[in-house]
Amino acid sequence: MVPGIAPSPDRMLQGRLFSYPDTHRHRLGANYLQLPINRSRDAVRYHQRDGPMCFGTNGGRLPNYEPNSFGGPQEAPNTREIDTRSAVEGFIGRHGYELTDADFDQPRALYHLLSPSEQQDLVDNMAGSIAQAKPVFQNSILPHLKRIDSEFGARIESAIKSINAQ
Predict the structure, then answer these.
(1) pTM of the entire structure?
(2) Is the predicted pLDDT of residue 94 greater than 90, yes or no?
(3) CB 62 within 8 Å of CB 70
(4) What distance in Å separates the CA atoms of residue 82 and residue 160, rounded to the nearest whole number?
(5) 80: helix, coil or strand?
(6) Are the CB atoms for 149 and 108 separated by under 8 Å?
């Protein structure tokens, strides 16, 4: 789409916007936009890579997801589609998302529902898996686990430290 121009909420147009790329993916594979005839004149940086009919360097070993901890792709807010709002039994648009304490209510309730032995099994299983990850990832998940329950997060952190000390 041309920057600054967004599709209308017309049902036929919306259906075509979905079905045409879907048909190309089915017939040509996930990298159909990399084919020379389909390729944009200017370089497009998106997260799709690997798979059949891949052209170019394929991004090497860099991650293809965002956010990441290795200098991979990041959203460029100034190139986003202009937010438009259309009345459709309410309003539609793009909205940012931030984690709130409400996002941790269900895992917290589940943790408190478990018996002490089940809680210990959960701590052991999670710590065993997390300890195998690189330290940067271990450190990034611990604040989330502590938001579920501070005691739960502290137990997992302690178990990770003892596993890594071995």
Answers:
(1) 0.56
(2) no
(3) yes
(4) 45
(5) coil
(6) yes
